[in-house]
Design goal:
The protein contains one helix and 13 strands. By secondary structure, it is mainly β.
């Protein structure tokens, strides 16, 4: 009797552990690492006398315009849950050019997740009021995406965007593209 009671309790505990593990992993997509914005993706032709180029392709990502200046980011981690909850931890998002190089540009940021590989694109964003960048470019976003993401996000792009104009200046690297051997 005592052994069967112990075995029953053990079975319930093991079953509860596995059930909670399955229920706890409600992650839709993860991002590890970040890419800073370079506003121009292609330059063609010969330079004008003033140093500008006549044919420039802007670095537009899924219909979202880039910031007007280069930005760099030291680190980024983000988890998006199936219900739309998102947590982003960014480090060192700073201007990478111009007279304010190395500063945060007094920017505030919000996050946008786009799951579609081709148009039409749905922008699922955190609060557009955003969160301010710290002096060293660090930021944290803990919010919910609106509208909610689809149950599957096959082509995830996470953009960190500036609140004043909605331009993007950093992007997350999907965790699946990093590989299992790098954390």
């Amino acid at each position: 009797m005592r052994k069967s009671l112990f075995a029953s309790i053990l079975m319930v505990l093991i079953g509860g552990f596995f059930a909670s593990s399955v229920m706890a992993d409600d992650t839709l997509v993860r991002f590890q690492g970040g890419i800073g914005d370079i506003p121009v993706s292609n330059v063609a032709g010969t330079a004008n006398p003033d140093g500008t180029f006549p044919n420039v392709t802007r670095n537009i990502v899924r219909l979202v315009n880039p910031a007007g200046q280069i930005w760099v980011i030291a680190a980024l981690r983000a988890d998006v849950k199936v219900d739309g909850r998102i947590r982003v931890d960014g480090r060192g998002l700073l201007l990478g050019g111009g007279n304010a190089i190395g500063l945060n540009g007094n920017a505030s940021v919000f996050a946008t997740l786009i799951c579609e590989a081709v148009a039409p694109f749905t922008q699922r964003s955190t609060d557009l009021a955003g969160v301010p960048l710290a002096a060293n470019g660090d930021f944290q976003i803990d919010d919910v995406l609106v509208p909610a993401p689809p149950p599957v996000c096959d082509s995830p792009v996470l953009l960190i965007r500036e609140t004043r104009g909605g331009t993007w200046f950093a992007a997350g690297i999907p965790k699946s593209s990093i590989g299992p051997d790098r954390e």
